[in-house]
Please model this.
Amino acid sequence: MTTFVALGDSITLGIGDPIRLEDPAGGRATRGWRGWAALLAEGLCDPELHIVAGNGACSADVEREQLPRALELRPDVASVVIGVNDTLRPNFDAARIGAAAAHTIGALRAAGATVLTMRLPDPGRMLGMPRVLARPIATRAHQINAVMDVVAERFGTLHFDAASDEETYDPRMWAVDRLHPSERGHRLIARRFHAMLAETGLPVGTPPGAEPTNPPPTRTMEFAWLATKGTAWVLRRSTDLVPNLMAMAFAEWRAGGPPAPDGSPVTDSELDMAHVPGQVALPAR
Model:
């Protein structure tokens, strides 16, 4: 048996990859989420999947709440995919995020688990933001990737570089909210991790297919989402995400002058001019 425990946030919960859940008692079917972790588990040998991820979780939540549950399950494989929610918090601190990730991943590795981690893609590029908003959030994503690179190298994780994978930025990979992968996007993550596990010699089965098994949402379905659940999402983001982004953009402007007011993606060279720690002090082994 291969025990797979998935830690993280709503991406690991599978949001963006809807499935129909039949009621075993014969009642009305409901809609649930599947996601990349479930798809990857299907490609493992004799899998036992436990998803302990939480919606909206930050790195501190994973360390404090999810890690103890994960260790109790004695995983053979564990995934720690975090960072998106951290980039949107006003108390963002890359060193603190790195310390929480190091403790979480170090504990899982010490328990004998093979650990999967991931570099974040550019959120501004995914959302199609104007540069004035894209630059600060891209800078934070770059900082998280920097600390996660250090942690991944230190503890020997299987580290998927979604930031540099051009397929990541294919619009078909993203759900209508542009923050969560679509079924195709979840399949991409699952396939990348499956290939990495296979390269280590871990017994695996057939990799997940690349093509979705469900039809993509129609424009009518997308409009229906925006008109119902999307409205609530926009209102929540308007009182949370947008003010934070504006504050981040203002701080960037004060620190280094206003970025160009176009919608082109922020380049690595621009990010390198921002304050990105080259090395992060992590807890001793």
In short: The chain has a mean pLDDT of 81. The first helix runs from residue 10 to 13. The longest strand covers residues 2-8. The two ends are 30 Å apart (CA to CA).
